[in-house]
Write a structure and sequence with these properties.
The protein is of the alpha/beta class. The protein is about 50% helix and about 15% strand. The strands form two sheets. Strands 1-8-7-3-4-5-6-2 form an eight-stranded mixed β-sheet.
């Protein structure tokens, strides 16, 4: 039995065998062949098998997640049908090369050509060619590539990393958890794991080296512990924990119909964070009182082109109608940082989190921004829409974003398009400069929403994707607590409500502090809503408020955590 430790990012226990997403050995021999026709036939068979596999993956992705996800595989089919690419391979085979050698040499030529282009979209074409040719090569060599669409039994995925698009393709029916070598607590893969409600441990460094495909595993998403080939005693122990978790979830079910009220009768709003319309169901099932964060960038990702205004309108309308009058806070496009759109051909940056992203990009690419705003305005009559601008650093940015929204509104009204008169306009406070002048923003906004994932990153100057500095992700750091208090006080001084849509909103140690500080809305992953509501029911705001000043004067995050734990005893 070997134990590993990683960063716990999604609670719960999973017991299953490991499914390693490790690349197989695709090395080959360069030999001269005698029967050219037979070799070309072997190549064509490999292409045909690859085509069947990709079509099957495309159908599965389209059925589960819609046309946009299916389009990823459509691009791969186009590569497979590219005559220039495979005619080149056939010509090399005719000259005496074996199929593996001919394929590799031809593909490398095209990959280098595309990667050398000064265009990110074309560079992505190189990635497509690499991906498709790997599949053909695997068939030539008779080895199998990892394919999680084929998973039909309980497994724990083990991978070096999982991109958000890979994570969304995992089927929670069979995937009971996952482990990655790299990643941080607030990476989007971690956030998606919480949204899907499956246990996950990231940043385990050597997991893919230490775990063999098919080995029995236990992962504890609460502690970050990983047990390889656990003994019977450990399996029994964690099965007991698993059963207790299951019973706890069943007990929580009663809170889905209850209001979010503290023990002494103080009401707050518990909302859910979503990335696509399909996520709404889990928020409503958990008794969510609204959507506190609709991450619209997921409508733009994993596809080959921008979503049209009509496509976006349909998605926003679907969410607003499903919420049936409950509030829906939509964050406008937050692309950049760790979220790239290859088809936008954005420049490579040395420090993307500090660079050209979110509102900065939207204000510079107004044609893109205006399409989204028009779609939102048109959808506004179908529910309770609130629009939120991300990554605001200055008042000028906020004013400009509001002006553009107002211009699109006027244009639509001139063409008799109905628009709600009740749309609230707010901003995410996630940059220290915005937090410090929150009082000025509160005068011009209808609401403020605190984005703690980035606020912590920028305040402590620690890249949240870098596991080497993950120890600096400290939501209880005195500087963070003081900024949060400053923002809430600033909003309330102007009679505006203040929410929080970062991970801190669902943190059991932070919740008593946020309740005492007077936070109005807590938005989190759907899987956390009932747990937080049950915790709120045990807390008394009146008893917590006197401790706030003491907490704000403490020196370290560890001291804050310990004092909160002591208060709750």
């Amino acid at each position: 039995m070997l134990a590993l430790k990683g960063i716990p990012v999604s609670n719960g226990v999973a017991i299953a065998k490991g499914y390693c997403l490790v690349e197989p050995d695709l090395s080959f021999s360069k030999i001269t062949i005698q029967n050219n026709d037979a070799e070309i036939m072997r190549l064509n068979e490999a292409i045909e098998h690859s085509k069947i596999e990709i079509e099957r993956m495309q159908a599965a992705a389209t059925q589960k997640y819609g046309e946009d996800k299916g389009a990823i595989f459509g691009a791969h089919l186009l590569v497979l049908q590219d005559p220039e690419l495979f005619v080149g391979v056939a010509q090399k085979i005719q000259s005496g090369m074996n199929a593996e050698h001919a394929l590799d040499e031809t593909v490398q030529f095209f990959i280098q050509m595309f990667e050398g282009m000064d265009n990110d979209y074309m560079k992505e074409r190189a990635a497509d060619i690499r991906d498709v040719s790997k599949r053909v090569m695997a068939h030539l060599l008779g080895v199998e590539l990892p394919d999680y669409s084929r998973i039909n039994e309980a497994v724990i995925i083990v991978a070096k990393d999982l991109t958000p698009s890979m994570t969304t393709q995992l089927d929670p029916t069979f995937v009971k958890g996952f482990i990655t070598d790299i990643g941080g607590k607030t990476s989007h893969t971690a956030i998606l794991a919480r949204t899907m409600g499956i246990p996950a441990v990231v940043g385990a460094k050597s997991a893919t080296m230490d775990i063999k495909h098919g080995e029995p595993l236990i992962i504890d998403g609460s502690t970050g512990e990983i047990f390889i080939q656990p003994n019977n005693e450990q399996i029994a122990q964690y099965k007991k924990v698993e059963e207790e978790n299951k019973q706890f979830k069943q007990q929580l079910a009663k809170y889905s119909e209850l209001k979010s009220i503290s023990k002494d009768g103080y009401s707050v709003e518990l909302a859910g964070n979503i990335g696509k319309p399909q996520d709404v169901a889990s928020v409503l099932a958990a008794g969510g009182e609204g959507i506190g964060l609709f991450r619209t960038e997921f409508l733009y990702m994993d596809r080959l082109d921008l979503p049209s205004e009509e496509e976006q309108f349909t998605a926003y309308k679907e969410v607003l109608e499903a919420l049936n009058g409950k509030p829906v806070v939509v964050r406008t496009l937050d692309i950049g940082g760790d979220k790239n759109l290859p088809y936008l051909n954005l420049p490579h940056e040395m420090n993307p989190f500090l660079g050209y992203r979110a509102i900065r990009l939207c204000l510079d690419h107004q044609e893109l921004f205006r399409i989204q705003l028009r779609a939102l305005l048109r959808a506004s009559v179908y529910g309770n829409l609130k629009v939120m601008f991300p990554m605001i650093a200055t008042l000028e940015e906020f004013r400009m974003a509001k002006t553009i929204l107002e211009e699109e509104k006027e244009k639509l009204l001139l063409t008799d398009v109905p628009i709600s008169t009740e749309i609230e306009i707010g901003l995410m406070i996630e940059i220290p400069s915005a937090a410090i002048i929150a009082d000025l923003f509160a005068k011009e906004a209808d609401f403020l929403s605190i984005g703690t994932n980035d606020l912590i990153q920028y305040t402590l100057a620690a890249d949240r994707m870098n596991e080497n500095v993950s120890y600096l992700y400290q939501p209880y750091h005195p500087a963070i607590l003081r900024l949060v208090k400053m923002i809430i006080d600033a909003g309330h001084a102007e009679g505006k409500w203040v929410g929080m849509c970062g991970e801190m909103a669902g943190d059991k140690v932070a919740i008593p502090i946020l309740l005492a500080l007077g936070l109005d809305e807590f938005s989190m992953s759907a899987s956390s809503i009932l747990t937080v509501r049950s915790q709120l029911a045990t807390l008394s705001k009146e008893l917590l408020v006197p401790h706030v000043q003491k907490l704000l004067q403490l020196s370290t995050a560890q001291q804050v955590e310990q004092v909160v734990i002591d208060i709750l005893k």
